[in-house]
Every structure is written in C-alpha cells, then in structure tokens.
Design brief:
With 495 residues, this protein is of the alpha/beta class. The chain contains 18 helices and 16 strands. It starts with 9 loop residues before the first helix and ends in a 5-residue tail after the last helix.
Amino acid sequence: MDPNRVILSAKQKALRINLNQDLYGTFAEIGAGQEVVRHFFRAGGASGTIAKAISAYDKDFSDAIYGKEAKGRYVCEARLVKMLQHEYRLMTTRLERKEHPTKHFFAFANTVATINYHKTIQGHGWFGLKFQTAPDREPSEVILHARLHEQDALLQQQTVGILGVNLIYGSLFLHKRPKDLLQSLYDELDRDQVEIDMIQMNGPDFEGVDNRLLSLQLVKNGMTDAVIFSPDGRNLQAADVLYKKNILAIRGSFRPVTKVNIDMIAKGLRKFKQESKVDPKSLQVLFEITLNNLSSEGDIDEQDFLDRADILCSIGQTVLISNYQKYYKLIEFFSRYTKKRMGLILGAGSLVEVFNEKYYRDLNGGILESFGILFSRDLKIYLYPWKDEETGDLWTTTTTPIHPRLKPLYEYLLFNKRIADIEDYDPEILNIFSREALTRIRKGEEGWEKMVPDFVDQIIKDKCLFGYCGVTPNAPMDKDQIAAAAARAIGREGE
C-alpha cells in the first residue's frame, strides 16, 4: 500500500472523474436508487462523463432489459454481470469511435437490497465496473459483494453511494496497484458500515493479479472474517456456495497436505454421507485455513499461502480462509446460510483444545455459551484418532483426556451422538505430521514423498512449492490426472 496516497472524499473523487475529458460511461443501478450516480451529478461537470443513468427498479421492466434470472434472485452476481455486459455493449455500439477517439468507456452497475422494514433481513449488494484504460484497449472488470451493517435503510443507501464512487475511482486510477485499490474502497467508510466479503479483478489490466491473494487481503485487512475460493482460483460469495447446503469442513495448516489430511477427509466424508440428514447432492466440502495459522511464523507469507492454495486447488478443493480461531464462530458463519446438518472433522488433539476453558474467557457464559452456539445447530463432530508419540496411546472418543470438570458435558454430547469416531482410519499413517514433511522438503532431505499422497508429491515437484528445488520427473501428471487421483482418494469421484 502506498503510504503517500491522498484520501479524497466521494465528492472530490466524482469531480476528478467528471473533469477528466477522456472518461465516459453509463450508470445502471437496481434496488437502492441511483445513489452512486447522484454523487457525479452533484459534483458538477457531469455532462462530459455520464452517457446515461438508469434505474430499472421494476422487476418486469428490468427483465425486459437484462433478461430473467433463472433462480428468481435479482441481487446476485449473475444479474450484475448481465447489467455490465449489456450497458458496456450499448456504449461501444451506439457511439462511433471515430467521433470519440480519446474516450475511455466504462459501465458501472449495482444491484442492492437495503435492510427491510422489520430489520429481519440485512442489506447487501453486488457492485461492478467494466472499464477501459486506453481507447483501443480491451476492458477490464472489478466485481465485489458487500454486506451492509447499518440498521437504517437511508444510512445504507448513503454507504452504497460512497462505496460505488470508491470502486469507480479506484478502478480508474489505482488499477496498477490492486492492494491500494482494495484499501481505497473503505475511504470515508468503516467495517461497522460495510463488509466486503468477495472481490474479483479480471481483464488485461489485472493479468498479474492472483484473485486468491485479494481474498487473503480482505481477511488480513479486517474487511471481512471469511472468504471462499473455488478450485479454479475464482473468488466466491459465501451465499452462492453454502446456501441450504450440508457443509463438511476440515481445518488444518495443509503445509503440505499429507496422507493423514486425505485420510481424514475421505473417511469423514464417507461417514457424513451416511447420515440420514445429509443429501449427497447438496453437500459442500471446505478445506479451512485460519488467518492465525497463516501467520504462525510472524507476518503472513503470501508465497507460502499460494503454495498451500495451489495444492488444494489442484486437487479440486474449495478453500475457506477465515479469521475464526474458535470453532463456534465458524459454525455461526455457516449458520447464516444453512440450517441443514453440518459436520466438522477434528483430530483428537484439536478436540482437547475445543474443551479448554481458557479460550472462552471473553464470553459471559464461558464455554457453555460457546457450546450452546455450536450444538444448538445441527452439528456433528467426526473425531480422527491421534497417537501420542511418547506413550503410544491412541486418543479416541473414549480415551481423549477431557478435564474432569467438563467430563459430564463431554459425555452428554457422546450420549446424544454429537461426537463420533472415525473408525476406519489408516493406522499406518498416524505418525505423519505436516511440519516434519515441510522441514524435509525445505532441507532437501529424502522421505517426505512417503508422507504425502502421490498426487501431492507431484504438485510440489512440478510447481517447486514450499522451497522444493529438486529435479522434476520426466513424465509429470497433468492437472486432470491429478484431480482424478485426488477425487478417488477423497472419495468424490463422479461428483
């Protein structure tokens, strides 16, 4: 981030854009009025900037312009994309380039729902800009989703206006510095007003941008607490991934993914699918990495993050990056989007930490409050055994050392089948640990290949991840072979 960047007000940004004779575009806003474009009208000089301003508020009228939405949802990414494409196409087809040889065309769009009258549904919206940075250049795009936190519709509308201006200004003037662009979205705003939980930058002006890093920046900068990206590295909005789904999550460092990680998810997934309340056709598996885990050695190493992400994406997994160090916070997050059965796969060592009272001293109700949040939802924990290296003891649901004061609570959960053993684990791999594999990779020592699945071994070598500097095999597996091998190992082939 540029420490010398001057923070301008929304009015100053709108005026600077209006006074730039090369910028010319359309504003299309649905749902919360024309809150963004009004800043440009009020700033002065808008006649040289605004080609058209439209608010297709009525659903039927909006459908006539942009087409119907298959799912009947209008505050969604698909609607925003249609708006951007339609309005930008009109700009380029209706205006003769020879008459506007220096113009940089743009199309701004948003589709927003503010808080309802009874305050039972919070506001949120999609915002996007499709824009040129030179007259003969193909357009680039910035798309984001925001959750509105203020408890008054008028205040949310004002926030929408400022956020939209920040997006337009940042895209047009800060596109060469994506991290600064991201920071500038909060000029004159704060997290109590708006939470940006998804952003995507695409096009020729963002060719060097890895959108997974943008997701990481959202969490790192406190703009949101959780982000999700798909196996192809595309940033996703949580509702699109989790809405009314059975969710199964596994938390780990995945540094690298080991045979233990794969066995945990494979056996846990198999057990989860056997639950009567789980629909295999509506199931979302998430590999979660916490911000605390990413910064365990100090500042977050972006390359280290990308190394982990590359492996998980290469084996076809959806990744969640969160700031939820405590599991009850994670379950609260999931509960925004689903009431269906959820599952957590935990190692026995992690379960001991869940029952450690010191982590809940900030709650008025202590550990009971956190467990009330966890188990008032339809949640089941699948316990993967842990082997004590010194004694050789195996920790399962019956042998995991829970503090005597909390033993009755633990036994209550066991009796009600809220915690279950993963019994068909592979006993031969219990002595494998990610930190040892990582050390061997970095030191160039032999033996680490036996600690990770064959397809993970291949990815690390092909992409030289985690400091690996060995020789890549002559006949590497292609990405489809790797994905297929991973799907078979995890038990998701055919999905």
